[in-house]
Amino acid sequence: MNKYIEVYERYLSQMSLSEILSSVEEECSELIQACSKLRRVNGEGIPAVVNQQDAIDSILEELSDVYFMVDKMIGRLNEEHLLELSDDALSERLNRLTEQKQIKLGKRIMGIL
Predict the structure, then answer these.
(1) What is the pTM of this model?
(2) Is 108 left (phi over 0), alpha (psi -120 to 50) or beta?
(3) How far apart are CA 77 and CA 86, in angstroms?
(4) 72: closest CA among 6, 13, 22, 11?
(5) Taking Cα atoms as reference points, which of 103, 11, 93, 43 lies closest to residue 113?
(6) Residues 6+ apart with CB under 8 A from 41
(7) Which tens digits make up the pLDDT trace of 78-89?
(8) How far apart are CA 78 and CA 43, in angstroms?
(9) Cα–Cα distance, 93 to 90 (Å, whole number)
């Protein structure tokens, strides 16, 4: 493993749950900004000063950051016994929640809710 990655992993392992949650919040807000930038590049709102490819690259970078920090958050929740699920059980639960959300949104679109 790269020595810089090792240093970063060691740093993350020393972060409190609160610090990890704060990092997740920060990364999510940066993803929101990147999404907004792409919308502006595509003609919505105030024009952006970057091109479409740069805006997409920014979204991909922020998605990577969010994915990484969410993974660390899940790990810490498991370590602190706040979330006691195997990877398979967590995946199953997230899939079930996603399906429930899709059903709810589908009903709302159809005017049922």
Answers:
(1) 0.80
(2) alpha
(3) 12
(4) 13
(5) 103
(6) 47, 48, 50, 51, 52, 55
(7) 888 887 888 888
(8) 43
(9) 5
- Which of 6, 66, 2, 73 lies closest to 31 in space, CA to CA? 66
State both tokens at 25. 């919040």
What distance, in Å, lies between the first and last C-alpha atoms of the chain? 51
Percent of the chain with pLDDT over 90: 61
- One DSSP character per residue, the chain reads --HHHHHHHHHHHTS-HHHHHHHHHHHHHHHHHHHHHHHHHTTSSSPPSS-HHHHHHHHHHHHHHHHHHHHHHHHHHHHTTSS---HHHHHHHHHHHHHHHHHHHHHHHTT--
| Contact by Cβ (8 Å): 62, 34 | yes
For residues 38 and 55, the answer to whether their CB atoms sit within 8 Å is yes
Residue 60 corresponds to which tokens in the numbers above?
């991909």
